[in-house]
Amino acid sequence: MADESTGEIDLEYERDDRPPWPKSILLGLQHVAVMIVPSTAVAYIVAGAVGLGAADTAYIVQMVLLFSGLATIVQAYTVGPVGARLPIVMGTSFTFVGAATSIGASYGLAAVFGSILVTGFLVEGLVGWQFKRIKPFFPPLVTGLVVVIIGLYLVPVGMDYVAGGVGAENYGSLTNLGLASLVLGVAVLLNLFTTGVTRLLSVLFAIVLGYAVAVAAGLVSFAPVTGASWFAVPRPGAFGFAFEPVPIVTFAFLFLVSAMETVGDMSSITAAEGRTPSHEEFRGGLFTDGLLSSLGSLAGAFPVTSFSQNAGIVNFTGVMSRHVVGVGGVILAVLGLSPKVGALVTTIPSAVFGGAVLLMVGMVAASGARLIFLHTELDRRNMVIMAVSLGLGLGVATRPEALAGLPTAAETFFGQPVILTALSALLLNTFVPGEQSPLFDVEGDETPAESMGLSASED
């Protein structure tokens, strides 16, 4: 049960707790199971769009897993100022799919990796370095809205997986819907009606059961496993580097989105403790995003960022141990060094993961709503900010074609639901007087108009 005064939930394991090794491994596997297909799907989508062969595609998938694991370990344990010492699982975000696909097709993958190399740490490193100065501009109202939109705009992605994956011949079939429903139903039942290890590992148990049913039904092909090698190492500069102005500016915009997502995900995780992240946590988390993305590009990995689904797992299970996530990071890194093991994991049907992903993104949105409701008075001013921010964010998420008349760069920037929601909330919260505004000191019963010296009768 949650503490109603602070929003803190009952944690089975707190941030620095170390569960027994068998339980830690299973809990770490649960985190890996939820994010591995969505993360590697980015590599498959981009590789297919730019016409890479099977060997190069497998290599990019391998690098995504390896650097996701390394970044997760750094987030859990830190290296100097890099890392947040929080249970943050890292992976490749769908935020970068559109740009990587279009730029890869037009300029080549060398331009993609050159842009990531330049903008990764430059953008997120600068944001992290100066976050103490800008933190007052990101109160619970703003960060909570970012968390909510992250969860909500990922719901269609979860539904695509439920239906079998975008482009699947059997998209929306009863088989896919049945598998996803099985996973979703089992995870919810185990979490709500059991205790102990079955509740903590409810998502993992549900995925394993769904996979077993899929194998028994003949829906799984093990051909990718037999064709994969047992061990492979990174090849620096595998696809070369090129530095083009338009791709660099585009990825700079997208890393701003990634920074907002990380701020939101970190707020979602610490909301389980009834608090917002500290300056050091924000700074270290953003440093990890940027630095590991730049380093990963040297070997051919796409940008890594915090994974919202796994922030949902923390709130869903009550397991906040960073050591559990550290174990998950080691597992991801091992998978990244063994293409054969990674290939085995990717044989799990999309529909099986869909049931779990849909649950997790819903939990992310719910945790964002809790962050807002616990720390924000729902007066007219704040309700208007919420309405505008969520309306614009969901608007471009559901109807991106509405921005087709904008210049390409503007369409790329404003077509991102997270950044449009964040910018709307940031600007309105900053310039409309209220208790959470960093520019105005407002008395408890004072309206925005009164705080600006306007007649109350005109408000």
From TrEMBL:
The keyword Transferase does not apply. Residues 439-459 are annotated as: Disordered. The chain crosses the membrane at residues 25-47, 59-79, 109-129, 141-159, 171-193, 200-225, 237-257, 324-345, 351-373. It comes from the Archaea. Pfam families: Xan_ur_permease. It is found in: Cell membrane. It is a multi-pass membrane protein. Keywords: Cell membrane, Membrane, Transmembrane, Transmembrane helix, Transport. InterPro entries: NCS2, UacT-like, Xan_ur_permease. NCBIfam families: ncs2 (TIGR00801), NCS2_1 (NF037981), pbuX (TIGR03173). Belongs to the nucleobase:cation symporter-2 (NCS2) (TC 2.A.40) family. This is Purine permease. It comes from Haloarcula saliterrae. The lineage of its organism: Archaea, Methanobacteriati, Methanobacteriota, Stenosarchaea group, Halobacteria.
